[in-house]
Amino acid sequence: MSLSSGIQARGVQLLLGRVMSRVHADLRSTGVPTPAETLRVETGAGPVTCTVYRPAAPAAASPAPVYVNFHGGGFVVGRPEQDDHICRSIAATAGCVVINVDYAVAPQRPYPAPVTQAYDVTAWVAAHGAAGGWDGTRLAVGGHSAGANLTAAVCRLARDRGTFTPRLQILDSAPLDQVADPATKRSLIARPLLSPGLMRIFTAAYVPDPADRAHPLVSPGLADDLAGLPPALVITAENDRLRDEGDAYAKALEAAGVPVTHRVFEGVDHYFTHTGPVPAAREAIALMGTALRTAFEG
């Protein structure tokens, strides 16, 4: 990574950090109390702090299932609190414990550190259910934007290593191809949220070596060995520059025999689950919760 790329990425952190932690006011209220727990998990790329959300009223005496969440931010902005409303809603709707992961970000910690942390935290959650008060055998994983990319990477590593088997992976507006020039990723609107310039800054910071950008853990959408991955809920936004690669990944998973629920939300752009429009955001978040509940019950 060049010095200028690092400076640009740090500028984005300063400019967008506070903005990305803001969520539309009408999306914030749920019945889940403010989380009072944090975990610190040791990983192969350093310790990671996680916030724990628990359902207000567990449905049964047995431990609740668990969902591991990865926030977005282009692999550069580290603001897990931006997903607070989603974590609360999922805990309430799916009746599960939610682990919100504060993974490392670039340019300070480029690839593969975020992937290592994401996988190691999820493996730890799967193995430590008894101590944590959740059922690690009923585990799902998901994320938003960059966090959805990490979700795909975690599921691939879990499959290849045979360590744990997520009941479901949730991919919300995922960047899945880090090789293609962002200028070739089209939107149906004149000024989408993601500009090619911003996307180039994200990629250069996260994956400084261009030779790494085609790796399946970086660009899952370019992989051709998708059989055996967990069932997936793939959410894409009609006006998002990332829509086409998300749609294509859903089709590729299905062609590989992976059960897929794919929903394209019309008239919305990237990050709509956080900034609205509120009706579409609520519908998408509710879909996540119900899909998780179904997966856990199955």
Q: How would you sum up this structure, described in words?
A:
The protein has 9 helices and 8 strands. The protein has 298 residues and is an alpha/beta fold. It has a single domain, classed as 3-Layer(aba) Sandwich (Rossmann fold).
Walk me through the topology:
Elements (H helix, E strand, L loop, with lengths): L2 H18 L16 E5 L6 E6 L10 E7 L13 H11 L2 E6 L10 H15 L1 H4 L1 E11 L1 H16 L7 E4 L23 H11 L25 E6 L5 H13 L4 E6 L6 H4 L2 H20 L1
Parallel strand pairs: 3-4, 3-5, 5-6, 6-7, 7-8
Antiparallel strand pairs: 1-2, 2-4
Uncertain stretches: none
Q: CATH homologous superfamily, by name?
A: Alpha/Beta hydrolase fold, catalytic domain
Radius of gyration: 18 Å
The number of domains is: 1
- Specify the helix fraction band: 25-40%
| CATH class type | Alpha Beta
Overall strand count: 8
Q: N-to-C terminal Cα separation, in Å?
A: 45 Å
Named at the architecture level, the CATH assignment is 3-Layer(aba) Sandwich
Q: Which of globular, elongated, flat, extended, rod-shaped describes the shape?
A: globular
Descriptors:
Rossmann fold; globular; 298 residues
Describe what is shown at a glance.
This protein has 298 residues and is an alpha/beta fold. It contains 9 helices and 8 strands.
